Request: fold
Amino acid sequence: MPHLDTRVLAGAATPDSLYSAETSRKSCNLNTYRRRHVLDWYGGVILLGAADFGAALAAPKLAVMLMGPGPTLATGTNSWIGYGVITVVTMLLAGLYRCGPARAPQDYAGAILRGLIAAHVMILLRFALLRTAPTSLPLAASVGWAVVAFGFAAVLIFAERGLVALWWRRADIGATHGSIALVMTGHCDRGLRARLDQLAGQRLGFMFAWGMTQSAGLRMIADAETFGAMIRSGKIDDILVFTRRSDDGAARRKIDTLLASLADQPVRVRLAFDAVAEIGAGGVARGQSLRMVTVLDRPLHWLGAAYKRAIDVLGGGVLLVVFGPLMLVIALLLLPSGTILFRQRRVGLDGGIFTVFKFRTMRSAPLNRAVTAQARRDDARITPLGAILRRLSLDELPQIFNVLRGDMSLVGPRPHAPQTSAGDFTFEQATAFYGVRHRVKPGLTGLAQVRGLRGPTEHPDMVAARVAADLEYIEHWSPWLDIAILLRTVPAVLGGQNAF
Reply:
């Protein structure tokens, strides 16, 4: 259970929000609980990986029993172990050892199936490229054997993951108690709270209800600023928003405004509703009518983040070696006319502010401006050399240092300055959930850029199109998507569409 910080939970003075003696005693053992929770989680992941490995080992053996001898490269202990290792590593890279897929594999059936398909494609390539004639089966027979083995692997892995998930849930592995905040605009009695808590895996700990004093046994959060601070400190890692048909327009606007303000935070947002009351779902018992859908999920699991950082460091180092001489030449050309680098505050991961580096392409502008104006075609502020640098995107090269420092990534939404002006509106005003793009690190290039969504944004719809591309990238991120964007960046830069 998270520790109650009375400074953070200012104003939570109702009896429901006070610690009992038992709660106080448990909070003293928080570190012990956390250590046990982490050990249980690692043990659960090891068990899940071992079960996947065992299923992957059993699949080719069953294929041999049904189809007869397999390809030479699929027989023998070493080959079978390789078969299992490829399967487990592929599923690990796909993020299928996180809490969600482990506790509810039925919700991630598509991702599990895609991971298995990717593993077996690699296995088929191994058959095709490393066949040892004449002892190997014909390629067509090898492919048929691999398809049967894939079928067995899929059945076994889904079966064992269902059993492991049942154990995870019963052992309460992967669920941090009290780390979900309930958001609603109306009254919440204890009966409704209990049903919502069951829906959320017994993890409700806080409630935000715009100054309401009742909490149905949950600890009240005083205001939106406190809410954000608790998310950033790690006390809250999930938000459950409960809506009702009786909520009026003002109540729904409150929820929209709150979620927009928290959109850039690393927290999952889920929507709960009563299926019977909202859509008249027939055949559903009143006590079992609550439903929950994910609105915003956490974009990167820990393995994906580690992979992305490793690629950033490796790729950034390579770019620095390749473009270092060119950067030196550009610096020498800029030196006689003033400063070499342009530094500006930009919004980064989780809404944090960092300093971005670019080669100077404009004449000096007045300081302390409230908003930052975008560059436009034939902008008088751009110098002749700056125009060439911007046309070829060479002014962005110093951001390699931002990547190596960890402020940015090679691929991600492009970083914008706070309150960037695009005519008579700012980017933040153009779309309510603009902040969602800050749930990942900004990048040197991104999906919006390779689609040609660059240059000035004279209408809010143009900002919305860029944000839509950024959100598509966040939702569908994979190592392969990053590689595809990097490859598409080269022709996009050489084409110079909307670059000025």
About this structure: The chain has 17 helices and twelve strands. The longest helix spans residues 30-67.
